[in-house]
Amino acid sequence: MSASAGSPDGTLLSLRGVRKAFGDRVVLDGIDLDLTEHQCVVVVGASGSGKSTLLRVVDLLDDVDDGQVLLDGQDVADPWVNADAVRARLAMVFQQYNLFPHLRVLDNVTLALRVVHRRPRREAEEAGTAMLEKVGLAHKARAYPDQLSGGEQQRVAIARALVGDPELLLLDEVTSALDPELVGEVLDLLVALRDEGTTMLVATHEIGFAREVADEVVFLHDGRVHERGTPAQVLGDPRRDRTREFLRRLS
Length: 251
What we know:
Distance between the termini: 35 Å
Strand order of the largest sheet: 6-7-8-3-9-10
Number of strands: 10
Helix content: 25-40%
């Protein structure tokens, strides 16, 4: 991943007092969060806790009502900031794969490189082929999305996100749309990316994955950070009643 200038202590992303409401429903209620380069922070919580909205706020897909979203110390939630320039430094992978069905896999992976980043086709295809090799799908480069399994399509979506060399990878419940037998191949890829030092902010319901890959686990409840710490502490020995209740329901 690209190295950013970062702050002196290595902090890449900081959220300070972030609040977001949709009408009368408060989804994020004063979120504070820090993420350093090469760190993997995993956000867990029940459906409706604000996990997806948190990622969308970081990627500037949703405006904040209050608070700051600091990327390398710059408040990118400021309405005067060039949102497209910020998003060029980030990459987000959604629950649904969002691949273009009429484009072959390699064209899906390289489209943004060619159209947004203005890379020559040959150069973009070399980068795209290398990234497909990385996710184990170089042999599917000429296939169409509907010729792939769900797990393969999600790995293509991750390759598309990574090929632009983002500073931060955002992953929103990327296994939730997969059949159970296909979840493992995507989680294995994310573990490998984490081991390579990819900076990741992940929203997931996969507690086993969070326990294995996270440097820090953040438990959201009703739009607030109720507990945070190492996976061993938050998932193995939670301090808060709501965290224990959430984990009991999952088990």
